[in-house]
Amino acid sequence: MTAELGQIALILALIFALVQAFVPLWGAWRGQENMMAIARPAAFGQFCFVAFAFALLTSAFVNQDFSVEYVARNSNSLLPLVYRISAVWGAHEGSLLLWALILSGWTLAVAAGSRHLPQTFAARVLAVMGIISIGFLLFSLLTSNPFSRLLPSPVDGNDLNPLLQDPGLIIHPPMLYMGYVGFSVAFAFSVAALLSGKIDRDWVRWCRPWTHLAWAFLTVGIALGSWWAYYELGWGGWWFWDPVENASFLPWLAGTALIHSQAVTDKRGTFQGWTLLLAICAFSLSLLGTFLVRSGVLTSVHAFASDPTRGLFILAFLGLVTGGALLLYALRAPKTVTGGQFAGWSRETLLLINNLFLTVAAAMVLIGTLYPLLIDALGRGKISVGAPYFGLMFIMLTAPLVLVMPFGPFTRWKQDGLRRVLTRLGLPLLAALSAGGITAIAAPESGLRGIAGVAGGVWLIAGSLVYAFGRIARQRGWQLPRGELAMSLAHIGVGVFVIGVSMTETISTEKHLAMNPGDQADIAGYAFEFRGTEVLRGPNWVADQGHFIVRSGERIVAQLYPQKRHYRAGGDIMTESAIDPGITRDLYISLGEPLDDQGRRWAVRIYHKPFVRWIWLGALLIAFGGLLAATDRRYRRYRRTGAVDAVSDDGTARSLA
Amino acid sequence: MTPTRKRRLITILLVLAGVASAAVVASFALKQNMLYYIHPSEVLAQSLPPERQFRLGGLVVNDSVQRAGDSLAVRFSVTDCSAVIPVSYDGILPDLFREGEAVIAIGSLNADGVFQANEVLAKHDENYMPPEVAETLKTAGPACAESALDR
Questions:
Q1: Most buried pick, A51, A261, A385, B113, via CB within 10 A?
Q2: Nearest-CA residue of chain A relative to B34?
Q3: Is A228 helix (H, G, I), strand (E, B) or coil?
Q4: What ipTM was predicted for this assembly?
């Protein structure tokens, strides 16, 4: 019965979503308060039923109900409990349900957190989120029902793809979706602002914490995906410019531009139209990402659903949502959007540069991702765009950003002098130059890219530190406005990330070897001794486990045990790499394949990856900055006057960028 | 022209120049890094210049995989059921690389007509096949997999 109940719950959720979308919209148009008031209870009802459906699907997995087709395809009686739960979002239908659940969760949060907003505005925001919900619930019910039965039911299931049987993959999709779907809030706010016809700065202020939160989740989600690919795929890479990675990165770029542009609109009232447009873009790119992943049009690690009707549905939905929002923008924005003045050298200009480079970078990634589709559609052959394209374009477009970033916080709004700002940045400049010099001496093989990268990273970190401590010193007492602290942390995170990438990409050592037991390989000052393999049994797999002893001189640094797993149910083979992590370097071993019949001689990958942890550490700092910014108390107050700087509780004027 | 107008004009011109140069660099970079997917019979039909990089896709011919005794060098053949191309590769093959299964190799032809791969991709799980290969095999007909593989 559970499956049928789940189906009914989804249909009821759809009805609630319909009510949540259209009744308040009508009420807001007609000025009827009782109709607008329906938005909140409807959002609550929708959430309850989606959560109920989700719980039912989870229980079908936990109880191994193989009469449900989705469970039979993605679980197995040998699968451990934790992976039976994460298998709920291990494939297309369930991950779509997770998407719907997260969307209704965000809606509920907005419903609860929007009581201080004018009723008409809040009703419109919830209505727009209801419309998005309708799309996804319909998509689930019409094309990808997770509850359809398989009769006669099989004795055992197919097993979850072993790549997904991993702790990183338990939380990667929920985090990523929290980000993707979270941008729907910014989208709904800007559509509501356009609908109201009166576009002022208030909506941006209300919207900022939501945007920060979604962006922080997306950052964590992308970082987790990258970390997972690093240790699980066994290739030692952390980013492949895979179309689906790009699909998650595009909304991130747009979102990063959006949070900066929102800062300008909130503080100064300029960039209003641009902020509206970016909010629409960020969510549209999230939808585009979903389309690319779900339609199977692209060759990718993630392309698990190749069903044309699904692709068509999302494409139509994408067209409707994006097209509708852009049309509304075209009709409304020119009349209502106003802008303020700013001088050539001001914080506005710097943030404009930030936005320009971020959006051009997003456009370049988009072109590289969609170009093969275009060529194929034109019948000009099947092509793929290699990673070097993205690498080149990206370095070109982010290098100026790194250079300019520390200037931002020091520069005043409206008008400032370059000389005044430069005097503050003497110390960071010195730090950057000496860091570059040290790199050139210590690791000359890193080349210009590595040296410039480290200098750039230190420039960012030192610039942000000098700014943060300068603010603290002027504040008397160790208090820094939370938004300022958040910004400094995030910018330091970018610096840490840049250093990590520069080192990993330039001075990594990668060796593919054929090794017999007793063989030793010398790589980057470490001696790797292969001691042979033994057979190991897990809950649902059997593995050949290698044993390596890593020495530096006489000292044993690490004992590593990489595995080659054979999953019993599906017959899949998986590489489990063994990593000795460290702040300054990772030692990474993965087994290739046995090269002789006795299984004694193995193909082995051995990597030395300097500073690779800094990549994810930086990303986490960035995400933590986003989270911290979302909790700044200033956003939660309702501003009635047009005051530029709100005055905080303790009486100090805060300025937030 | 008023100072404001003049400043706006300069801004617009700068942005246009930036966008134009970015577009030029992007199209150049795209051309440089574009890899065509070509299947074996097309390789034989067109005379591709040696050293030209492309992606070769098809099925691995049964019993065609030969390893060198002392290194990671390996040779195998790829077919689309009407033509066979020998491939040589020096490195570790992916987990799901098997004879009779779909594969995509990235590299170029050498003077002897052997495809020198610098990267080999296999499918990611039991059910997945690269769309390009799936399409090739579909046009070749259903009997392809059994009949052509044993050559």
A1: A261
A2: A385
A3: helix
A4: 0.84
Establish if A536 touches chain B: CB-CB under 8 angstroms.
Answer: no
Q: Are A514 and B70 within 8 A, CB to CB?
A: yes
Long-range contacts (CB closer than 8 Å, 24 or more residues apart) made by A303-311: A303/A244, A303/B128, A303/B131, A304/A91, A304/A92, A304/A161, A304/B128, A305/A91, A305/A92, A305/A144, A306/B131, A307/A143, A307/A144, A309/A143, A310/A92, A310/A139, A310/A143, A310/A144
The residue of chain B with its CA nearest to that of A596 is B69
Would an 8 Å CB–CB cutoff place A371 in contact with chain B? yes
Q: Cβ contacts (< 8 Å) between A163 and chain B: which residues?
A: 124-125
Q: How confident is the model at residue A299 (pLDDT cuts 50, 70, 90)?
A: low
* Burial bucket for residue A414 (CB in 10 Å: 0-12, 13-18, 19+): middle
Rounded CA-CA distance B109/B122 in Å is 20
* The dihedral sign for the CA sequence A463, A464, A470, A471: positive
Alpha-carbon distance of A133 to A19, in angstroms, equals 11
pLDDT, chain A, mean: 88
CA distance A37 to A629: 30
Residue spans per domain, chain A: 1-165, 401-503, 509-611
Q: Smallest Cβ distance to A382: which of B18, B37, B96?
A: B37
- The answer to whether residues A6 and A93 touch, using CB atoms and an 8 Å cutoff, is no
**Other C-beta atoms lying within 10 Å of the C-beta of residue B145:** 14
Which residues of chain A neighbour B19 with C-beta distances below 8 Å?
A: 360
Q: In this structure, which amino acid lies at residue A127?
A: A
- Give Cβ neighbours of residue A66 (< 8 Å, ≥ 6 apart): A72, A75, A150, A153, A154, A155, A156, A157
CB A544 within 8 A of CB A564: yes
pTM of the model: 0.91
